[in-house]
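note to self: the first set is below, dont mix up w the second
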Amino acid sequence: LLNLGCYIRNKDAVIPMLGLQLNHLEFNFSYDITTSSLRQYNGGAGASEFSLIKKGFINGRAERQTLCPSL
């Protein structure tokens, strides 16, 4: 499953995101594009972010687990 999206941080940044979900693992890449006056401090370079998300229960700890909803 391929994920594509965009986050907006109010008056500060636009963050496009691309992700790939394989079984219970999700790999995401996003790039933070600063749109506020703070961009003068990062040279307009923005920031890259990679994330690895494991979905599901941890074995032996079911009493402390809650499934997150998927929209």
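second set (the one i keep forgetting abt)
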Amino acid sequence: LTVATAEALRRELDLLIPLGHPAITLNLNNCTYLDVDGVLALLEAYKRLHDAARTFVLVASRGGLGEALQA
């Protein structure tokens, strides 16, 4: 999830969030790299959903990105 893909994620979330689902899950198991733009996109999504009293779930396997996100 990099500067090259963060905007695409934002666009997808812009379509999903208004649908009112109680939770949105993002599977990052195949994500091998996360730059600052990717982190910002995830934090923005979390804030938008949190402010709407909804849940944002990140799925990332153990090791690598999963451990970095947990820290």
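remember for set 2: The two ends are 18 Å apart (CA to CA).
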